[in-house]
Known about the structure:
A: 13% strand; B: 418 residues; 4-stranded antiparallel beta sheet; globular
Amino acid sequence: MDTEPAPERSERPSMTDTRIDKRFAALRAERRAGLVTFVMAGDPDAATFARILEGLPAAGADIIEVGMPFSDPMADGPAIQAAGLRALKAGQTMKKTIAAVKAFRAKDQTTPIVLMGYLNPIYVYPVDAFLNDAKDAGVDGLIIVDAPPEMDDELCLPAVAKGLNFIRLATPTTDAKRLPAVLANTSGFVYYVSITGITGTAAPDAADVHAQVARIKKSTKLPVAVGFGVKSPEQVRAIAKGADAVVVGSILVTTIALSLDKAGQPTGKTVQSVLGIVQALASGLRDGM
Amino acid sequence: MSSPKTRTPNPNSFATGPDERGYFGMFGGRFVAETLMPLILDLEGHYTRAKSDPAFQAQLADLNANYAGRPSPLYFAERMTEHCRKSASEGFGAKIYFKRDELNHTGSHKINNCLGQILLALRMGKTRIIAETGAGQHGVAVATVCAKFDLPCEIYMGATDVERQKPNVFRMHLLGAKINAVTSGAGTLKDAMNEALRDWVTNVKDTYYIIGTAAGPHPYPAMVRDFQSVIGRELRQQMMAAEGRLPDTLVACIGGGSNAIGLFHPFLDDRTVKIFGVEAGGHGLGVENGHAASMNGGRPGVLHGNRTYLLQDGDGQILEGHSISAGLDYPGVGPEHAWLHDTKRVTYVSSTDKEALAAFQLCTKLEGIIPALEPAHALAYVTKLAPTLPDTDLLVMNLCGRGDKDIFAVADHLGMKI
Ligand SMILES: Cc1ncc(COP(=O)(O)O)c(C=O)c1O
């Protein structure tokens, strides 16, 4: 597990010492899987989101995925769709999302932040300016749902050239023939999507997931995180037995939704309820597995 | 192999696209989630083989002739021609023809595409069909071919459109389709497409997605165009028979652009043929979020699997757009049109809701043909264009759908009670 990743092509910056790489090295030293938490930038509003983000590391998040809200999230289920709409309604923009990461980074220099979303808001930003601003703010990686390997010259290669990790989704339909293409320009970690489907729906079967992760690991030295449909501490613990990290998202944004008042505004419970869930989910990874 | 992120100079031929990665100039491509990628590559392989398989083409030709009722007639719209000549100077006023795809089985051009795609789905061994629909014409055509070929069918339709296209909703029910009303967003075509994509990503193993227009990830834009090009190919022959030469001017409405590209494509390299696409101008192009003219009022972006012109705000969030016509109410457009717009081979204009309503009534009274609200947009532009053309000019408008589905909505707009 501790061997060096394959050498990068010389024109690219080394990817062996990004915050993500260091975090996975630390997790290996602790002999435990990591918890990756997804929250939507600006949900339910910018100020409340800043407090949630700030509280996540202490609550047990090892890596933070920050969703960039998009009007048409084609791969997301109702919970994350609703979170994005709440954020947009509260006035969230790409610039505000990057500013939120910058503010977080001023206080926390070690917890990796991965921006997750869809290509269009980045395309119109446009790409080069976005990569500069994101890197400058302390973003570590990108997960872009609608940028498959066939489209790597759009965003993936420029992002890698800037020193950002490009994290790719592998899915149950990513067969042996296709896996090399998916892994080719991936760095940081591989995100195994445990179901064919949208976020927050069917629950994954742990044994099946472990077999799939083992299959992916035969082709890469990168850590593998597993997500889509993970909702309870028990599921986190079960999945973690065969993965380097577990991703939770829909359960967190659902918790935020349930904490809002009738007008959709945050209440005194909002920040604490989502951090409380993160604590509960994280506990499964730390108490002697 | 770098993708074309910037505009390219005009090609020698307009008819050879897309390239092997699905690009028309900088537009098109394959921007989909990883789950769908293997399936889309598989679909491309199947389509490439089917396209050159005489058995496939023969089966499709037979269905077109005996099930859909092709070829659709080329009709000289004499009174419309006279009407336009009244406001024209001496020697002006084009000779107006309608290509009558509204006479097809199910009432629009949508059946041309559905027959092709259902044969492909069968070849791929898929056992379940999904589709999105706006006006319901595509939904009806999908439900129809699913009934004929005995495949279960689910249609995604925006809740707003379910309301304004009730007759088609009922037809789909009768045909045995399950209709899922989509309430996200404004409940129109883009939201239906999002929901259909979510279904597809979930049921990718057994499900085939019949996209209803010449948009989406490669190979859909090219494949739908090929199936719709029967319109333009017939027209070439019919016009040669009627007038002994090619048409001079082509006009079609643009939603996603399938009826238009079907008419235009066989003529793209006939440089003397003037080509016009008519977008939905809604309340007017000056009204923010009040129209659905993505080329005249939008900017390039990436949505639903392809790069194309989109209605969007400064932060890349997609706008809903607006049109009186549910079939044109889409914030994007097929990538081939985006490219034909940039290269200026085709001129894209727009007609407003009001102009389309007026043309709808005019056509009904003058020709005894009730057009759908979608081609009524094209006709509204024809009434402006024809008087500026010489009376020797042969103008063909694609009358791509009949208006039966629209009579309730039109009555509403005219303040009448049925
Ligand atoms: C009659 C008719 N014309 C045109 C359209 C617009 O689609 P397209 O631009 O793909 O032809 C529709 C779509 O529903 C339609 O029903």
